[in-house]
Design goal:
The protein has no helices and three strands. The protein has strands spanning 4-6, 12-13, 49-51. Strands 2-1-3 form a three-stranded antiparallel sheet, with no helix packed on it. The model has no long low-confidence stretch (mean pLDDT 97).
């Protein structure tokens, strides 16, 4: 699964970790995040994330 980076603040969403503080279980792909999920650091929506080139 691909990681995604928040363009404004640099937070990286790693699907292997998820976002447990906000109820997102490990193993949840970025595409499967709820539409209203926001960056836990700066609060922007999914539209402001880009795939991480590895």
């Amino acid at each position: 699964m691909k990681k995604y980076v928040c363009d404004p603040c640099g937070y990286i969403y790693d699907p292997e970790i998820g976002d447990p503080d906000n109820g997102i279980a490990p193993g949840t792909s970025f595409e499967d995040l709820p539409a209203d999920w926001v960056c836990p650091i700066c609060g922007v929506g999914k539209e402001d994330f880009s795939p991480v080139e590895e």
